[in-house]
């Protein structure tokens, strides 16, 4: 889940740059791109982070690809894993690792050497999957070989002539018996039917053991890394925009936090209002997603503001280069994570951080100056 969330965050962080030309930042062999229509071309890169309206990868990616946009297209080879989210996601390049994709439409037309996880309104798989496959959607088409097990949750399924499953086929549906699995796909002894309620336990682990110390430490460090990287990307793509948000957050933290609370409350409240109107119920998911993303983005902005404050307290002044901004982003992420570990009060402090950050963003969007919030 953390992996699939990353591309979603990237597209939100890229929003200030969508009205500008594409931003392309290369660091340590990795590529960070954002803009309206963005294409990765030329020499191969290690890892790719790309977000925008229409994003395309045509250069080889030796490591992992993270892609988010309205239209996401992979046309090159990926040496490790692929993570894609958007309205339309097309995997037209070979992937040596796993593929995780989510969108209204998901198409996989080139071989996947690892596992495949795809969910959407329409899911179309026409290339072989060497590992296991988890497919969920309103309409799923499988016309390829799955080398491992298949978990399938769909209202409608089209089995192509090339559909084959070497392992077990697990069908999840309100009426599992309504989904027919041809004998050419898998023998009846390898088809297992489940109620839709069991879909949440598709990994076979309905209960989760309490994580150990090293697992918790890894999770903590992973959180710091994700927030730090996102803050760095935001600072590199739109330094002036982020500087304005940081100034708002630090100059009037209490009032800015109140604006964030009002903005978040308005989005949450709109869910009830839209549902009451009947016809507006189709917009309820938009309000829910907007509220979640405002909170997440607010935390990144708030953590960066804390990092800049710590940067100044250390006698280094305001960060004026990408390297300094990266240090501030990671420092803020680490401080925020440490604050979150405080018993009882930590979660309140974390909430304050994302409310202040969200308030700065809401105030900027609503064109409210610092004087207007006084």
From TrEMBL:
<feature type="transmembrane region" description="Helical">
    <location>
        <begin position="326"/>
        <end position="342"/>
    </location>
</feature>
<dbReference type="Pfam" id="PF26514">
    <property type="entry name" value="DUF8173"/>
</dbReference>
<feature type="domain" description="DUF8173">
    <location>
        <begin position="219"/>
        <end position="365"/>
    </location>
</feature>
<feature type="signal peptide">
    <location>
        <begin position="1"/>
        <end position="19"/>
    </location>
</feature>
<keyword id="KW-0812">Transmembrane</keyword>
<protein>
    <recommendedName>
        <fullName>DUF8173 domain-containing protein</fullName>
    </recommendedName>
</protein>
<keyword id="KW-1133">Transmembrane helix</keyword>
<feature type="transmembrane region" description="Helical">
    <location>
        <begin position="220"/>
        <end position="245"/>
    </location>
</feature>
<dbReference type="InterPro" id="IPR058486">
    <property type="entry name" value="DUF8173"/>
</dbReference>
<feature type="transmembrane region" description="Helical">
    <location>
        <begin position="348"/>
        <end position="366"/>
    </location>
</feature>
<feature type="transmembrane region" description="Helical">
    <location>
        <begin position="257"/>
        <end position="282"/>
    </location>
</feature>
<keyword id="KW-0732">Signal</keyword>
<keyword id="KW-0472">Membrane</keyword>
<feature type="transmembrane region" description="Helical">
    <location>
        <begin position="288"/>
        <end position="314"/>
    </location>
</feature>
